[in-house]
Amino acid sequence: QVQLVESGGGLVQPGGSLRLSCAASGFIFRAYHMTWVRQRPGKEREPVAAIENFGIGRHYADSVKGRFTVSRDNDKNTLYLQMNNLNPEDAAVYYCGAFTKWNDRWNLKKYDYWGLGTQVTVSS
Fold first, then answer.
1. Spatial distance between the Cα atoms of 50 and 61, rounded to a whole number of angstroms
2. pLDDT of residue 52
3. Of the candidates 122, 118, 124, which has an alpha carbon nearest to the alpha carbon of residue 36?
4. What is the CA radius of gyration of the chain?
5. What integer pLDDT is reported at residue 13 of this predicted model?
6. What is the pLDDT of residue 54?
7. What are the b/e assignments for 79-90, b being 16+ CB within 10 Å?
8. Would you call 69 helix, strand, or coil by DSSP?
9. Helix, strand, coil tally for the chain in percent (to 5)
10. pLDDT for residue 26
11. Facing residues of 122 across strands?
12. Cβ-contact 52, 102 below 8 angstroms
């Protein structure tokens, strides 16, 4: 069956870095665009970084531009999110999601698959 499994979350101090991974199985990973989405306490899910299926096009939320980098390895069926210079506002559960039309990258209702998330805590 389809699975998206996030990992790499944890506790980090402000200014620190984390690298998240999302391992995909059960579907043709290279056929899907992918996005990292986060949900902060009491807030709705918000997309933060999207990448096209072959990794050429990328799109970032303004709040993470210059600090986060999304990448993927289609040979390993894995999506990544390198997060640098983290601040307390980045603390959230981070999910990966898969979708098929690039224009829908910020429309979460159009996504086909979701992972269960990994918690990121930013605190001193």
1. 9
2. 98
3. 118
4. 13
5. 97
6. 96
7. bbbebeebeeeb
8. strand
9. 10, 50, 45
10. 97
11. 12
12. yes
Q: Give dist(CA 8, CA 114) in Å, integer.
A: 17
Q: How far apart are CA 112 and CA 121, in angstroms?
A: 27
**16-48 core/surface letters (b: 16 or more CB in 10 A; e: else):** eebebbbbbeebebeebbbbbbbeeeeeebebb
- In the chain, the amino acid numbered 98 is A
24: its two tokens = 């995909």
Six token digits for residue 46? 């918000």
C-alpha angle 104-54-60 in degrees, rounded to nearest 5 = 50
Site of tokens 């620190």 = 16
Which tokens go with 58?
């990328």
pLDDT for res 4 = 98
Residue 85, both tokens: 């210079």
Strands 33-39 and 78-83: unpaired
> Contact, 64 vs 88, CB < 8 A?
no
Q: What is the pLDDT of residue 116?
A: 97
pLDDT at 75: 98
Residue 104 is predicted with a pLDDT of 93
Q: pLDDT under 50 in the chain at which residues?
A: none
